[in-house]
Amino acid sequence: MKRVILVAAVARNGVIGSGPDIPWSLPGEQAEFKKLTMGHTLVMGRTTYESIGRPLPGRTTIVLTRDRSWTSGHDEVLVAHSLIEALGKAASHEGEVIVAGGAQVYAEAMPLAAEQIVTEVPLEPEGDVFYPPIDPKTWVETDREHFDGYDRVWYERLT
């Protein structure tokens, strides 16, 4: 199985979204996300994909949905109906598997992940979508990069 990496922007209170929206704007953060994910395979839930509205260039996109009739409208977007199916489809594509949301997909993928790259957002916005807790018995911080207005933190799974 390919290496699974969770990539998320998480507020101090654990919020990652308010419905399909991200309740903040961090200048430059999307460009950093692009650098981290370019050339890899993105796995995301349907709501996350629909909030983006299109496949992201330079990355394979696999959308998880329980709706067997759902299509993205883009031939290059792959559809999977389980995380295991998504990981199977990712095996034949380049790069590592980057899980890019939402909350249910993060929670399901966390036990399989080798790494997390978390943008720490120094806000406590209202929201109804939360990132799963990072258990310090399972994860260790290995690197931290400071940006203007946020930190990016790398976690590795303890073995």
Describe the model.
By secondary structure, this protein is α/β, with parallel strands linked by helices. It has a single domain, classed as Dihydrofolate Reductase, subunit A. 19% of the residues lie in helices and 34% in strands. It has four helices and ten strands; from the N terminus they run ββαβαββαβαββββ. The strands form two sheets. It has an eight-stranded mixed sheet, with helices on both faces. A two-stranded antiparallel sheet has the order 2-8. Strand 3, helix 2 (46-52) and strand 4 form a beta-alpha-beta unit. The longest helix is centred in the first third of the chain and has 9 residues, at 29-37. It is globular, with a radius of gyration of 15 Å. It starts with a strand and ends with a strand.
Number of strands: 10
**Mean pLDDT metric:** 96
- Terminal Cα separation, in Å? 17 Å
Low-pLDDT segments, ≥5 res: none
Alpha-carbon Rg, integer:
15 Å
Strand content: 25-35%
Q: Classify the oligomer.
A: single chain
Order of strands, widest sheet: 5-4-3-6-1-7-10-9
Report on the biggest sheet. Answer: 8 strands, mixed
Work out the count of structural domains: 1
Structural class: alpha/beta
**In which range does the helix fraction lie?**
10-25%
